[in-house]
Amino acid sequence: MKKAVVLLSGGLDSATCLAMGQEAGYQCHTLAFDYGQRHRAELVAAERVSRYHGAASHRVIRLDLGTIGGSALTDTALAVPEEESEGIPITYVPARNTVFLSLALGLAEVLEADAIYIGVNAVDYSGYPDCRPAFIDAFRALATVATKAGVEGHAPSIQTPLLTLSKGDIIRAGTALGVDYSLTVSCYQADDDGQACGRCDSCRLRRAGFAAAGVVDPTRYAGAMPK
Question: Where does the chain cross the membrane (predicted)?
Answer without folding.
Answer: none
